[in-house]
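pipeline/complex-builder :: batch 7 item 3
reading input block
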Amino acid sequence: MSTQTETNDTFPKLLRYNARVRAERPAMREKDLGIWQSWSWAEVYEEVSDYAAGLYALGLRAGDKIAIIGDNRPRLYWTLTAAQVIGAVPVPTYADSVAEEIQFVLDHAEAKFAMAEDQEQVDKLIDQKDHLPGLEVILFDDSRGLRDYNQSFLWNYEAVLEKGREFRTQNPEFIERCIDGRTGSDVCIMLYTSGTTGQPKGVVHTHDSVLITARNAAELEGLNERDEVLAYLPMAWVGDNIFSFGQSYAAGFCVSCPESSDTVLNDLWELGPTYYFAPPRIFENLLTTVMIRMEDAGKLKQRMFHYFMDHAKKVGVDILDGRSVGLMDRIKYGLGELLVYGPLKNALGLSRVRLGYTAGEAIGPEIFEFYRSIGINLKQLYGSTEAAVFITIQPNGGIKPDTVGVPAPDVEIKLSDRGEVLFTGPGVFKEYYKNPESTADTKTDDNWVMTGDAGFFDDEGQLKIIDRAKDVGQLNDGTLFAPKYIENKLKFFPNIKEVVAFGHERDYCAAFINIDLEAVGNWAERNGIAYASYQELASLPQVYEQIQAHVEETNRQLSTEERVAGSQIKRFLLLHKMLDADDGELTRTSKVRRRYIAEKYDVLIEALYSDKKNCRIETEVTYEDGRKGKLAADLEIRDAKTVAIGAGAAAQAAE
Amino acid sequence: MIYREAGEFKTSYAADQGLLTIPMDRWFVIGLVLFAFIGMPLVGDEYWLGSIMIPVLILAIAAMGLNILTGYAGQLSLGTGAFMAAGAYMAYKVATNLSFLPVPVAILAGGGFSAMIGVLFGIPSLRIKGFYLAVATLAAQFFLLWLFTHVDWFVNYNLSGVPAIADYHLFVDWGPLVTGAQASVEARYLFVLVFAVFLALAARNMARCKIGRSWMAIRDMDIAAEIIGIRPLHTKLSAFAISSFYCGVAGALWAFCFINNVEPGAYEIERSFQILFMIIIGGLGSILGSFLGAAFIFLLPITLSQLPGWLGLDVPADVITHLEFMVMGVLIIFFLIVEPHGLARLWQIAKEKLRRWPFPY
Amino acid sequence: MEALNALFVTPFVEIFDAPWFFMEVLTGGLMAGVMYSLVALGFVLIFKASGVFNFAQGVMVLFAALNFVGLMDAGVPMILAGIITIAIMVAVAFAIERFVLRPLVNQEHIILFMATIGVAYFLEGVGEMIWGTDVRPLNVGIPDDVFFVGDAMIQQSDLFAAVVAGFLVVVLALFFHYTRTGRALRAVADDHQAALSIGIPLNHIWVIVWSVAGFVALVTGIMWGSKLGVQFSLSVIALKALPVLILGGFTSIPGAIVGGLIIGAGEKVAEVYWGGFFGGAIEEWFAYILALAFLFFRPQGLFGEKIIERV
Amino acid sequence: MSEMMADNENGRIGGELLSVDNITLRFGGVKALTDISFNINKGEIRSIIGPNGAGKSSMLNVINGFYKPQEGTIRFKGKNVNMKPDLAAKSGIARTFQNIALFKGMSTLDNIMTGRMLKMKAGFLSQAIYWGRAQKEELENRAFVEEIIDFLEIQSIRKTPVGRLPYGLQKRVELARALAMEPELLLLDEPMAGMNLEEKEDMSRYIIDVNEYFGTTIALIEHDMGVVMDLSDRVVVLDYGCKLADGSPDEVSSNQAVIDAYLGVAH
């Protein structure tokens, strides 16, 4: 492999290499016309060569940008490599972007070419063409509905291939020359980050940064040419570029594209990938679906299911991690595998998964453990666009639900004084395109990148990410206060919907809590407790008891972690209304608007930091029909037991 | 539960249109066929092979035949017995008069003759449907049986009218004895099994090809079938021909490999009903159902007659016969009400359950 | 030549040579035909009212007769035996409606047909289980003397049967035309929806019509049974009724009568005069082949309505 | 698919494809159609409209051979025809029905495959062993059918038994089956009956797409006047079995007799 690193230092070279050593093995698949149409590495190489020549013939040159807009399609992936062959830079964009967003990216990137998936995307481009003087050629993959489009700048993919073939017969050495002429330090791809604030930034990566990172991780995890992966996440996202492109080229495995975004679940099931990435949200939804579907099963089946799931909870993870487990437990687990876990994994399309990743946000430990306990090797990683994904990966055999693992191969990590995570390594990006200030803000001269995330290492050297660095504060006694970390811990309880924690420049930590109407309502119904509204439900003493138990459990967990042990929740209250985007309390993407809430409910906050047992509040609410109204309530404030630092750990050890 | 289909994706139409696209099923069927060929002759005794497996397989062939006509093409027939008889008598004629032909050829010739007869009695199906057609097939049932018993040519002027089947080798005078009283039960069983397996395979193939689709099209909606260019008469007659071929082969095998003589009583109207029941209970429009139905209907009376013994009860034989009638009647009604697609559908449902396991749907 | 002679000359010569004998054969056939007619009548009733092709009609004849003769042999007076048997047949009708027809409502006709085959098997099993399989002579006092019309010998019992059949037809005709229930039955035959709209529960109609068919079966069984004894072969005449229906049409009561007579007379005459040529026993298939021929030329039968297929 | 695409560069509409001359159809004493004449040109979308019972469906049934007219002739591709439905299919006429006429016991895929019946020539022996020609034909035609499935966007119901599909999808499958025949003339009998607005829009789009992509001539019966006026090149109006008007949508909708007989009536 090491000789390969030197000789195959760009993706086109790697493609050529794969076309030689695993010519007949499948490189790409797409569910189309009812079956999984396949292309071997040799075929892909041939097609990409024609395509690259065609692009060149149409006027694409080294350094030019070619935008890619659409869902995961083989031809869109080939556009990446074809552009790279001639030294042009592919710029994938999000397929669901509106025309204006696309216009911004293409304009900023100075895209000369654009490859569009279908009529929908072509329409967006044509719509914005007047504002994009640099855009010369629009290619499209699926010609459906485009028959009557006779603009001269529109090119059908097939026509480009045709042109490429022609060009190659006249210049037979062209492709080889192009490929050999590039090196690893050339720009490979530009990925626009959909930053939460401000305009997207174009992250420029070289072949080296993407390829070495991809290969390192592939070697670490033992990915090989027999692996299967389903490409269903946006091409513009760095993860897809690594999992469905970079690592496929590096390890030689096949990438499969689903039939459409509606059929992903079924396609996943058919394909049965061995290597699978999904954000926590997907795993969570999947688990919910499993539980809901099981509700409809017969009594006996349900009992069997829960019996074996409980057993998996007990020993499943240990078995997966190869720890010693008693023979009886093993036999029982084997039976469970036959009756529950195996069929379940099969039904989810995950039965062949050797390696699953999740990242992006915190995953609930229950959810994470659920998948691991039924034998799916799910791991968390921590990454970013600027790192070509991998910063840390959970090590095999040392997986803990609340850490993101140890540094990826060749990656170094350090923490700033404020607790911010910094990394350096082969995957560090080159620059933000046309944005030297941001580049300088993010990347130091000696190649360290600031992630903007606050974290710390636990005693086993595994990184824990606790919050965005800018949100992390300090209690008056100097203890670290990471609101999101605390809130997430609480939100993992099904009964808790939303939490807002306070503590920055205060004496202790306190919280507003929203209960989950569905979960708690369900519980109330089952126990014959009547309630008329959310407000009433949230004020019930029994509900307070439950939430208090959750808070105290969270405190116990916090107490085991040295860095955050001081920020246990002393006092909390249950809000009388759901935090709502309509009232400006949440963003449209359901993120808590901390400052606004602090202002709006300052009375409550003051009460939390006094010794009051109750507090009256009157708030304006917006009803669903747009009417406004007043809501008044007298809220109970409770004290929660905290655990002495270290005592929690001792208690845990004693269990 | 036992299915692991994730990752079994198809990269070509050939694979997607295969017979058993789920590997589990494929292995199961291969295993079953292997057992039928190797295991069964080893473990089965004279009674099991000779008195159960052989007749069940033969009846399954006839049931497949009727299923092609009734289950796939939607044409009701009450003349199965007569078409079986046609096969038996013609196979006998060929085997005795053209003795240079190997016996499998004689049996196939019986099927061929039956196919011709089937076409003849299928002609009315162009103009009539349902019960009316049932009458036409009843005419075949009574007329043909009368013909074979009253025209001595068919039995080579045998005085008893029930000629015995000689012992034939597989190929004229080469190979093991496969028919007649001297043939070993294993040889006869394997001989019948080969026919059953190949005919089942052929039926499945036809069912998934053009011809099967045109049968089903005629069955489901003949008017719509016509507008897409399906010729009704041609399609119905092809169903009659192929159906009768299967019945004819079954009839010939019955005479050659099971009862060792050409006995008209074996092909009476009761036989026609018996086979009709097999496909109703087994499953209309299902090859698998033909086998399940044949086994079920054939084994039911045997089980019923053994049952009191197993339970230590003393029930007179004639009571059991009456019970058999009652149980049969109730079962037919039960299946029509509860599962009109028969055992094959139950099997399907069970399979779906296993595929969805642990989810209920 | 000889064959043509045997087929087209000799039989007719024989007929003209012995006209009285022919008359005798013909009346014998017609009388058998009356039995077919009665069975066919049961079919038509049920088919008209419920669209069900009742294969079990033949077995119902056997079942009714078995009960009747069984009760009489057990010492029950004839009238009482008749009443009890009718009650049993009504109960059977109820059971069939409840356990067969109702669960299968709106199913295809062919499915219902097959269900009645199930009913036939069940009733046969039950009947023979209770009353045994022996042939039971039945004597209900039908005169069985013979008398002569010219040289033709006529059995009084046959004549009696004919009168009963005629009487039955008249009663049924009156019932259909002059009673509310009868009119409702006709309405159902024409249009199920219409029948529902005039407020008659379909279930009741089915029970009634199956009961009536049960009654017809009983009468048929008594007639046939007093002639040949009550035995299993009674159920086989159900199959003979099929060609009768083809001839007469599935929905026509007069058709059933006329069809029965034609088949009965036809097969007797054919057997006596042409049977020898064919090798005998052509009675077994004559009716079916005749029906088959009919199907080619007049598929709707003699009295049936023309079926127009709408696209 | 490309071989199916019509050469539409020089004008979509060509010469006469079908002509109906003086057709009179009687059922017993009832006249269903009286002396109807009109023609259909290659490549056009021709609508037949009229109030209920005007004889529209009868007209289609005459064209594809279900009914035999007592008088008059039908000429298709210049040839005098008086054919049975299966021969009509052979000569290139496909149709859909007002009441869906799918094969209920079969899957979507199999239903559409039946549309390829006429393109398959393998003998039954070849089919029985699923070898050689039969297998080749099955696979080739499957590939063709998949194109149509893709075209009509019914991938997700490929293997679903059609009986379980909702109404709108069944209509689409029926259209797919007709398209699988690669017809020159496609008769659509109320393709949008009973559909909601969205489904109607979809169906309209498919009809236009079919007409444009495959160059298929379409004869359409439809109740929704908006749809008819949008889609059609020419419209013929029937009333009580007689022809009332014939011409472009504009001409027809301004014709007084049509307004009186049909448009005036609230629909």
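note: The CA atoms of residues 63 and 126 of chain C lie 8 Å apart.
queue -> next item
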